[in-house]
Design a protein that fits this description.
One of its GO terms (molecular function) is methenyltetrahydrofolate cyclohydrolase activity. This is Bifunctional protein FolD. Keywords: Amino-acid biosynthesis, Histidine biosynthesis, Hydrolase, Methionine biosynthesis, Multifunctional enzyme, NADP, One-carbon metabolism, Oxidoreductase, Purine biosynthesis. Homodimer. The chain has ten helices and eleven strands. The strands form three sheets. It has a six-stranded parallel sheet with strand order 1-11-8-7-5-6. The protein has a three-stranded parallel sheet with strand order 3-2-4, with helices on both faces. The protein has a two-stranded antiparallel ribbon with strand order 9-10. By secondary structure, the protein is an alpha/beta fold. α2 links the parallel β2 and β3. The model has no long low-confidence stretch (mean pLDDT 98). The chain folds into two domains: 86 residues, Rossmann fold; 129 residues, 3-Layer(aba) Sandwich (Rossmann fold), CATH 3.40.50.720. Bound molecules: the ligand Nc1nc2c(c(=O)[nH]1)N[C@@H](CN(C=O)c1ccc(C(=O)N[C@@H](CCC(=O)O)C(=O)O)cc1)CN2. The site of ligand LMY7XDAE has 17 residues, from β4, α6 and α10.
């Protein structure tokens, strides 16, 4: 069986079009322009690329982009002061601090300083709690993107067996909450899980989010299952070059699965599209206006 390839790049473009439509309605109907502030501390090359893409795409959908680039040795007080100013700024509806932060900064403290209503990453403990209790939350962008692709591909997810491999706060745990919210039977597997291959073989939906290149081989996959590969791992491609691979061994998984996301071009592009979706949602909520349809969990 050859799996259907779920084209995250094309899906993300459709999500951005929907966001642009909602932004246009906010601007023309209510005189409100959603604004997203992105804070980058230091010069991590991958983060610089992501932040540049975020700024460009924010402007492309008609929103205001505020970029704050701080030196790698920026102190906690200076960063917290900036967040306090962004929290108080009515033209800023979404705040994102690009991760990872330099080692001397306390990530949990910095995230806790963001106004939960502007926390478009969905990492603030208030949003984590709201999601876990099935209430209206800001939902982390990568899992939200995975959920959108799953719903689009499978329709109703209720009753399906889902296995999430990885228990990070950013992907694994919120992904499991979202799947539970859609009435899947959810298992979170991790490095201590006994007989991981057998656990994964039960799954109608596999979400791999461990950051280990090619860890999931095709013989772990139930025939016809939907495989969402969140891994973005840069590996040696010889001759001084590198290439990106996922957590799943693509060829062997694609031979068994019903559908699979590629790396690159799968989950990755959905992360930024969902950040834009969360920003327009945050703006709508801040102004007591209807939320965009199809862009939330
Ligand atoms: N505050 C946050 N920091 C980070 C997040 C996040 O959601 N919030 N996620 C990642 C990085 N990230 C966005 O910030 C991100 C990662 C990957 C992609 C993407 O489009 N990847 C492409 C490949 C790009 C490449 O060639 O390197 C793909 O998979 O096709 C977008 C955004 C960590 N930090």
């Amino acid at each position: 069986m050859a799996a259907q390839i779920i084209d995250g790049k094309a899906f993300a473009a459709r999500v951005r079009d929907k966001v642009a439509g909602h932004v246009a309605r906010l601007v023309s109907g209510h005189g409100v322009t959603p604004g997203l502030a992105v804070v980058l501390v230091g010069e991590d090359p991958a983060s610089q690329v992501y932040v540049r893409s975020k700024g460009r795409m924010t402007v492309e959908v008609g929103m205001a982009s505020f970029e704050h680039r701080l030196a790698a040795d920026t102190g906690e007080t200076e960063l917290l002061d900036l967040i306090a100013r962004l929290n108080a700024d009515p033209s800023v509806h979404g705040i994102l601090v690009q991760l990872p932060l330099p080692d001397h900064l306390d990530e949990a403290l910095v995230i806790a300083a963001i106004d939960p209503a502007k926390d478009v990453d969905g990492f603030h403990i208030s949003n984590v709690g709201l999601l876990a209790t099935g209430q209206k939350a800001m939902v982390p962008c990568t899992p939200l993107g995975c959920l959108m692709m799953l719903r689009d591909h499978l329709g109703d997810l209720s009753g399906l067996e889902a296995v999430v491999i990885g228990r990070s706060n950013i992907v694994g745990k919120p992904m499991a909450q979202l799947l539970l919210g859609d009435s899947c039977t959810v298992t979170i597997a991790h490095s201590r899980t006994r007989d991981l291959p057998e656990v994964v073989r039960r799954a109608d939906i596999v979400v791999a989010a461990v950051g280990r290149p090619g860890m999931v081989p095709g013989d772990w996959i139930k025939p016809g299952a939907t495989v969402i590969d969140v891994g973005i791992n840069r590996v040696d491609a010889g001759e001084g070059k590198t290439r990106l691979v996922g957590d799943c061994d693509f060829d062997s998984c694609a031979a068994v699965a019903g559908a699979i996301t590629p790396v690159p071009g799968g989950v990755g592009p959905m992360t930024i599209a969902c950040l834009l979706a969360n920003t327009v949602t945050a703006c709508s909520r801040a102004h007591g206006l209807p939320e965009p349809e199809g862009l939330t969990a």
